[in-house]
User: What shape does this take?
Amino acid sequence: MASRLNLTFTASESGVLAKHAEKIGADGILSTPPPYCVPSSREIVKLFSDLSEHATIPFMVYNWARGTNVEIDHETAVHLSKIGKT
Amino acid sequence: MIKTLECVVQDVRVFAPFISRRGHSVLTGIGGDGNIDGGPTAASFGVEYYQNVQRSNSDAALLIADDYCDLMGRLIRPDWSGVFGTPQAQYKAFMNLMDQPGGYPRLPLLPVDETDKLKSLRDVLASSGLVTWHDH
Assistant: This one.
Protein backbone atom coordinates (compact mmCIF):
# COMPACT_ATOMS: atom_id res chain seq x y z
CA MET A 1 0.00 0.00 0.00
CA ALA A 2 1.24 3.45 -0.82
CA SER A 3 -0.24 4.92 2.32
CA ARG A 4 -1.66 3.80 5.66
CA LEU A 5 -5.19 4.37 6.87
CA ASN A 6 -5.27 4.88 10.63
CA LEU A 7 -8.55 3.92 12.29
CA THR A 8 -9.06 3.87 16.04
CA PHE A 9 -11.09 0.72 16.57
CA THR A 10 -9.45 -0.42 19.80
CA ALA A 11 -9.73 0.82 23.37
CA SER A 12 -5.97 1.28 23.64
CA GLU A 13 -5.85 3.46 20.54
CA SER A 14 -8.89 5.50 21.56
CA GLY A 15 -7.51 5.61 25.10
CA VAL A 16 -4.55 7.64 23.87
CA LEU A 17 -7.00 10.23 22.54
CA ALA A 18 -9.00 10.10 25.79
CA LYS A 19 -5.89 10.76 27.86
CA HIS A 20 -4.94 13.61 25.60
CA ALA A 21 -8.43 15.11 25.90
CA GLU A 22 -8.21 14.95 29.68
CA LYS A 23 -4.71 16.43 29.70
CA ILE A 24 -5.73 19.49 27.68
CA GLY A 25 -8.72 20.20 29.91
CA ALA A 26 -11.71 18.57 28.23
CA ASP A 27 -14.79 18.24 30.45
CA GLY A 28 -15.62 14.79 29.13
CA ILE A 29 -15.22 12.24 26.38
CA LEU A 30 -17.83 11.03 23.93
CA SER A 31 -17.48 7.97 21.74
CA THR A 32 -19.61 5.78 19.52
CA PRO A 33 -18.92 2.11 18.97
CA PRO A 34 -16.58 1.79 15.99
CA PRO A 35 -18.29 1.76 12.58
CA TYR A 36 -17.90 -0.90 9.90
CA CYS A 37 -16.78 -3.81 12.10
CA VAL A 38 -20.22 -3.95 13.79
CA PRO A 39 -19.19 -5.23 17.25
CA SER A 40 -21.42 -7.54 19.28
CA SER A 41 -23.01 -6.54 22.58
CA ARG A 42 -20.22 -8.28 24.51
CA GLU A 43 -17.60 -6.53 22.42
CA ILE A 44 -19.23 -3.12 22.89
CA VAL A 45 -19.31 -3.52 26.68
CA LYS A 46 -15.70 -4.71 26.75
CA LEU A 47 -14.60 -1.82 24.53
CA PHE A 48 -16.21 0.88 26.66
CA SER A 49 -15.21 -0.78 29.91
CA ASP A 50 -11.57 -0.76 28.79
CA LEU A 51 -11.80 2.72 27.33
CA SER A 52 -13.31 4.19 30.50
CA GLU A 53 -10.16 3.22 32.40
CA HIS A 54 -7.96 5.49 30.33
CA ALA A 55 -9.27 8.77 31.76
CA THR A 56 -11.00 9.99 34.89
CA ILE A 57 -13.24 12.65 33.29
CA PRO A 58 -16.90 11.80 32.49
CA PHE A 59 -17.42 9.40 29.64
CA MET A 60 -20.44 9.39 27.33
CA VAL A 61 -21.51 6.49 25.14
CA TYR A 62 -23.16 7.80 21.96
CA ASN A 63 -25.72 5.56 20.30
CA TRP A 64 -25.76 6.86 16.73
CA ALA A 65 -26.88 3.90 14.66
CA ARG A 66 -27.42 5.96 11.54
CA GLY A 67 -23.76 6.94 11.52
CA THR A 68 -22.13 3.76 12.81
CA ASN A 69 -24.42 0.94 11.68
CA VAL A 70 -24.27 -0.28 15.29
CA GLU A 71 -27.41 -0.10 17.43
CA ILE A 72 -26.77 -0.23 21.17
CA ASP A 73 -29.70 -2.34 22.33
CA HIS A 74 -31.45 -2.28 25.69
CA GLU A 75 -29.46 -5.07 27.33
CA THR A 76 -26.18 -3.58 26.17
CA ALA A 77 -27.16 -0.11 27.41
CA VAL A 78 -27.97 -1.52 30.85
CA HIS A 79 -24.59 -3.28 31.00
CA LEU A 80 -22.86 -0.07 29.93
CA SER A 81 -24.63 1.91 32.66
CA LYS A 82 -23.04 -0.34 35.28
CA ILE A 83 -19.45 0.26 34.17
CA GLY A 84 -17.47 1.64 37.09
CA LYS A 85 -20.37 1.15 39.52
CA THR A 86 -19.08 -1.99 41.24
CA MET B 1 -36.08 3.83 24.74
CA ILE B 2 -38.43 4.21 27.72
CA LYS B 3 -37.62 0.76 29.07
CA THR B 4 -33.91 1.51 28.79
CA LEU B 5 -34.31 4.93 30.38
CA GLU B 6 -36.12 3.42 33.35
CA CYS B 7 -33.30 0.94 33.86
CA VAL B 8 -30.34 3.28 33.58
CA VAL B 9 -31.45 6.74 34.67
CA GLN B 10 -30.53 6.16 38.32
CA ASP B 11 -26.97 5.19 37.41
CA VAL B 12 -26.00 7.47 34.54
CA ARG B 13 -26.97 10.73 32.89
CA VAL B 14 -29.17 10.24 29.85
CA PHE B 15 -29.29 12.53 26.82
CA ALA B 16 -32.09 11.80 24.38
CA PRO B 17 -34.62 13.63 22.18
CA PHE B 18 -36.65 15.03 25.07
CA ILE B 19 -37.72 18.31 23.43
CA SER B 20 -41.23 17.35 22.38
CA ARG B 21 -44.56 16.84 24.10
CA ARG B 22 -43.89 13.12 24.45
CA GLY B 23 -40.30 13.80 25.48
CA HIS B 24 -41.50 16.22 28.15
CA SER B 25 -43.78 13.57 29.55
CA VAL B 26 -40.95 11.04 29.66
CA LEU B 27 -38.46 13.55 31.07
CA THR B 28 -40.74 14.67 33.90
CA GLY B 29 -42.19 11.23 34.55
CA ILE B 30 -39.10 9.05 34.44
CA GLY B 31 -36.08 11.32 34.28
CA GLY B 32 -33.28 12.35 31.98
CA ASP B 33 -30.68 15.05 31.62
CA GLY B 34 -30.61 16.67 28.18
CA ASN B 35 -30.29 16.42 24.44
CA ILE B 36 -27.57 15.92 21.91
CA ASP B 37 -28.34 18.25 19.07
CA GLY B 38 -26.86 20.83 16.77
CA GLY B 39 -26.02 23.83 18.89
CA PRO B 40 -26.50 26.45 16.19
CA THR B 41 -30.19 25.69 15.83
CA ALA B 42 -31.07 23.90 19.04
CA ALA B 43 -29.26 25.78 21.79
CA SER B 44 -31.66 28.70 21.96
CA PHE B 45 -34.57 26.27 22.29
CA GLY B 46 -32.81 23.75 24.51
CA VAL B 47 -31.54 26.11 27.18
CA GLU B 48 -34.93 27.73 27.63
CA TYR B 49 -36.75 24.39 27.45
CA TYR B 50 -34.66 22.69 30.13
CA GLN B 51 -34.74 25.75 32.38
CA ASN B 52 -38.53 25.69 32.23
CA VAL B 53 -38.57 21.95 32.88
CA GLN B 54 -36.35 22.42 35.93
CA ARG B 55 -38.70 25.14 37.22
CA SER B 56 -41.76 22.96 36.52
CA ASN B 57 -43.06 25.52 34.03
CA SER B 58 -44.67 22.87 31.86
CA ASP B 59 -46.80 25.18 29.75
CA ALA B 60 -43.81 27.30 28.75
CA ALA B 61 -41.68 24.23 28.13
CA LEU B 62 -44.32 22.67 25.88
CA LEU B 63 -44.65 25.81 23.79
CA ILE B 64 -40.91 25.79 23.22
CA ALA B 65 -41.05 22.09 22.39
CA ASP B 66 -43.75 22.75 19.80
CA ASP B 67 -41.65 25.47 18.15
CA TYR B 68 -38.57 23.26 18.21
CA CYS B 69 -40.41 20.28 16.69
CA ASP B 70 -41.85 22.53 13.99
CA LEU B 71 -38.37 23.77 13.10
CA MET B 72 -36.67 20.39 13.20
CA GLY B 73 -39.45 18.81 11.18
CA ARG B 74 -38.56 21.18 8.35
CA LEU B 75 -34.81 20.50 8.62
CA ILE B 76 -34.36 16.83 9.58
CA ARG B 77 -36.30 13.85 8.23
CA PRO B 78 -37.51 11.07 10.52
CA ASP B 79 -34.56 8.91 9.44
CA TRP B 80 -32.22 11.73 10.63
CA SER B 81 -31.16 12.71 7.12
CA GLY B 82 -31.14 16.40 6.25
CA VAL B 83 -33.86 18.01 4.14
CA PHE B 84 -31.45 20.35 2.34
CA GLY B 85 -28.26 18.28 2.37
CA THR B 86 -26.15 15.92 4.41
CA PRO B 87 -26.73 16.81 8.08
CA GLN B 88 -23.15 17.99 8.64
CA ALA B 89 -23.15 20.12 5.49
CA GLN B 90 -26.58 21.45 6.34
CA TYR B 91 -25.48 22.47 9.84
CA LYS B 92 -22.50 24.33 8.44
CA ALA B 93 -24.86 26.14 6.08
CA PHE B 94 -27.10 27.07 9.06
CA MET B 95 -24.11 28.41 10.92
CA ASN B 96 -22.94 30.49 8.00
CA LEU B 97 -26.42 31.91 7.53
CA MET B 98 -26.50 32.75 11.23
CA ASP B 99 -23.10 34.49 11.01
CA GLN B 100 -21.49 31.74 13.04
CA PRO B 101 -18.12 30.22 12.00
CA GLY B 102 -19.60 27.25 10.13
CA GLY B 103 -17.01 26.91 7.42
CA TYR B 104 -17.47 24.06 4.97
CA PRO B 105 -17.73 20.27 5.30
CA ARG B 106 -14.79 18.03 4.54
CA LEU B 107 -14.83 15.92 1.39
CA PRO B 108 -16.53 13.74 0.34
CA LEU B 109 -19.32 15.86 1.81
CA LEU B 110 -20.15 18.90 -0.28
CA PRO B 111 -21.33 22.29 0.95
CA VAL B 112 -24.94 23.29 0.65
CA ASP B 113 -24.29 26.20 -1.70
CA GLU B 114 -27.12 26.10 -4.23
CA THR B 115 -28.90 29.46 -4.27
CA ASP B 116 -32.40 28.01 -4.09
CA LYS B 117 -31.55 25.70 -1.21
CA LEU B 118 -29.85 28.47 0.73
CA LYS B 119 -32.89 30.68 0.24
CA SER B 120 -35.19 27.91 1.47
CA LEU B 121 -32.91 27.27 4.43
CA ARG B 122 -32.86 30.96 5.31
CA ASP B 123 -36.67 31.06 5.13
CA VAL B 124 -36.90 28.12 7.54
CA LEU B 125 -34.46 29.71 9.98
CA ALA B 126 -36.18 33.09 9.68
CA SER B 127 -39.59 31.60 10.37
CA SER B 128 -38.20 30.32 13.67
CA GLY B 129 -36.52 33.61 14.53
CA LEU B 130 -32.97 32.29 14.19
CA VAL B 131 -32.14 34.85 11.49
CA THR B 132 -33.98 37.99 10.51
CA TRP B 133 -35.93 37.99 7.27
CA HIS B 134 -34.06 40.94 5.84
CA ASP B 135 -30.47 39.77 6.53
CA HIS B 136 -28.13 39.81 3.54
User: Anything to note?
Assistant: DSSP finds six helices and no strands in chain B. The first helix of chain B runs from residue 2 to 8.
